[in-house]
Structures are given as C-alpha cells and as structure tokens.
Amino acid sequence: MSQTAAPASPVAYDVVIVGTGHAGAQAAIALRQEGFGGTIAMIGEEAHPPYERPPLSKEYLAGDKPFERILIRPERFWDERAVTLRLGERVIAVDAEARLLTTEAGAMVEYGSLIWAAGGHARRLTCAGHDLAGVHGVRSRADVDRLIAELPAVREVVVIGGGYIGLEAAAVLTKFGKQVTIVEAQDRVLARVAGETLSRFYEAEHRAHGVTVRLNESVACIEGETAVCGVRLGDGTVLPAQMAIVGIGIVPSVEPLVAAGAAGDNGVTVDAQGRTSLPHVFAVGDCAAHANAFAGEAVIRLESVQNANDQATVVARTLVGREVAYHAVPWFWSNQYDLKLQTVGLSTGHDQAVLRGDPATRSFSILYLREGRVVALDCVNAMRDFVQGKPLVVDGAVLPAEMLADSTQPLKALWARP
User: Fold this and answer.
1) Of 55, 133, 169, 192, which residue is most buried, by most CB within 10 angstroms?
2) 166: which residues sit within 8 A by CB, 6+ positions away?
3) Which residues pair with 277 in a beta bridge?
4) Within 10 Å of residue 393's Cβ, how many Cβ atoms?
5) Pick from 126, 150, 127, 131: which is nearest to 225 by CA?
6) Helix 196-208 and helix 164-175: axis angle, to 10°?
7) Residues 352/366, Cβ–Cβ less than 8 Å
8) Coil, strand, or helix at residue 1?
9) Parallel, antiparallel, or unpaired: how do β-strands 135-136 and 243-246 relate?
C-alpha cells in the first residue's frame, strides 16, 4: 500500500525578499548595513544571483561586459552577509494572515516581514505570431542569451517599440551590421519619457546610422510558420525579418499579492515607507506604485535603478526602526552609439522646454519647466549639466528661460540653494 509523503514543514526567516533584481538586492544589502541581525532570504525566479538589468540591452548584448561584470555583488558576498539565496523558485501564493509563501514547486516559506521586489515581466504582443521563434523580449539574461545565439543567422531585425530598450537594442544590432527597423505606434520615439526635441534628435541619430524609423505604425501580426520571417504592419506592409525584438514596457509581477488582498491597480500601492495594505508586507522597485513628489504627488511606478535602490533603503531603515519617508529625485540613463543620455526629474506635464546648447554638437541639454519651475533635465553628453541641474529639480528652481538657455553660464552659478 503506497503512502503519500507529508508536506515539508515551512522554513522560516525574519525577512523574506521576493525578487533578486536591484530592489531585492539593495533591500538585503541595506538591512545588513543598518545592523539588522535577523535571518534574510531572497527568493528569485532566475537561477542567477542578483545582477544589473540595464546593461542587458547595452554592454551585455554588445559583448562589452561578460555576465560576471554585471553581478550586483560577487556571489560570495551573499554568504558573507548571511543572506540565503533561493534561486530558481517562483512564489505563486501569499497568505498574509499566516505570513506564509508558497512556491510553484510546493515549498512553503514563513516570514516575519515580506519585501516584494519581484519587478515585472516584459509585456508581450497579443497578435498572431507573438510566440514564434525569433520573437524576443529583453528583460533577463536568458532573453539576451537566446537573442545572441540567433544573431549569426539574422540579417534583418524589426524592433517593436521606440522606448529606451528598443533604441538601445537597435543601436547595438546596427553596430553588428544588421538591418534594423524600429516600429513605433506613437508619432515619435521616447514619447512617454521625453520632449519632442530629444525625440527628433534620437530619430535623426538612428537614421544617420542606417536604422529605418517608422512612426505612427501598428503591428498587425508576426508572420512565419515556426519562426518569424516578417512583421506585418497595420497598413498591410510586411517588413522582412528573421528576428523581432519587443520593447513595449513591462507588466508588474504582483499577482500573488493582489490575490492576497493587496491594494493596487497598476502595480501594488505603497505608502512613503513602502508598506502595502497587507500587514508586514512591503513592496519596492518597478512593481511599487507610490505618490511621487516629483510627479505632483501622482501615484506612479518608476522603472529605474535609482527608484529601486532608494525605495529598498527606505524599507530597510523602517524595518530597523528608523522610519524615514521616500523622497528621492528620479534619474535615468541610456547609452546609444557614442551618446550618453542622463535624465533627472520627470518631464511629464511640462509646459515649457528650454534648449541649452546645440544638438548639432552632440552635447546639449533640455530643461523642462512646469509653471515656471524646473522639473526635469535631459542631458546628452553633458555630465556637468546633469550634476549641476539636479539641485534645480530638487528645489523646483524658478529661473528665466534665457538664463537657463545660456550654456556659457554653469547651472550652479544660476541658483543659490535655499
């Protein structure tokens, strides 16, 4: 007579961190830096220790950095800090009352406090052919490794989406000698994150490097039987392609928290300390929707390393009794060709854009104002403006546009901090 094995007893940790990206790693690092002496476990879907994601579409795809150089910390670091890494495990259920997690494999993990840092998954196309071989997202090392393995047999690539990921991938693939077409549904690239001047500059740069940029175009389907052979647009045009890269945003990975009763719509809603509506449960990083002072207190998600690190640090300090509020100015960066774009602040809702410098020199900045106040800067090959412009955003500086536009005057000379 066969016997059914009894389920394994749950393993308990004082803090469990779900997610091994920037937010999860920084939460563990900050807890130890703040003197937290309890047990910590990080649970991650991937088999790899925490690594940086931004280089995936840049240096890692280009072959300029091996995987070991994009690790957030050397692998031994986690053992030295007594942080248990549970890799290759996916959490599928949260019991907030029992403080219990269940993984896809059936393992159960108890927590004293839970930090949800699961980020998101690349948003996929829903049209016919979206699952053909040769259709790729760029979100994980495995995604990029598969893409790299296929490249030798690829001549033509269609990049769907003109955001940072799509543009960065297009720049790298162009360097590899591929014929690249960018398909963007809106009337300009970077439409969600930048003003028109910057969008037109990057469109021109990509075209100058041989990239075809098609705007106001929808994708009807991906053509092919088992592998992609073309991308059919809404007007019936078929773009030949042996590879399609989809960069149309992410879907926050929050299903288990929402099923457990956590409040939120686009992500999980958190307060200024990162608390969700569930007791003893925090959320940080790409999946955490928070009221942001630099967005006029609108509830937003920020997909950036800065946000991940800063939110995680706030939660760590809260857990050791140093309750602080999240108030960090957002910043981002993007490398394309020999252009380094650095952004500080959020330009959404700006009513004036001031050009500082000449785009023809490939070194310039754009300052965004809302009701006269500086709310953001985009700096292309202009590190000094990026560094000196941050206080203007933090303080909401009010300065005449003609002063801001004068690139002979350092920004720090224009503003005395209150």
Assistant:
1) 169
2) 159, 160, 182, 184, 189, 245, 247
3) none
4) 22
5) 131
6) 20
7) no
8) coil
9) parallel
pLDDT digits (tens, 9 = 90+) for 202-218: 999 999 999 999 999 99
pLDDT digits (tens, 9 = 90+) for 265-320: 899 999 999 999 999 999 999 999 999 999 988 999 999 999 999 999 999 999 99
Residues in the chain, overall count: 418
**Contact, 350 vs 370, CB < 8 A?**
yes
Tokens 């993990």 belong to: 109
Question: How far apart are alpha carbons 350 and 346 in whole angstroms?
Answer: 9
Q: Which two tokens stand for residue 405?
A: 């536009």
Q: Confidence band (pLDDT; 50, 70, 90) for 331?
A: very high
Q: What is the pTM of this model?
A: 0.93
CA nearest neighbour of 332 among 148, 168, 207, 160? 168
Instruction: Show the tokens assigned to 203.
Output: 């469109």
Beta bridge partners of 15: 40, 113
% helix / strand / coil in the chain, to the nearest 5? 30, 30, 40
258: buried, middle or exposed (CB in 10 Å: 19+, 13-18, 0-12)?
A: middle
Mean pLDDT of 397-415: 94
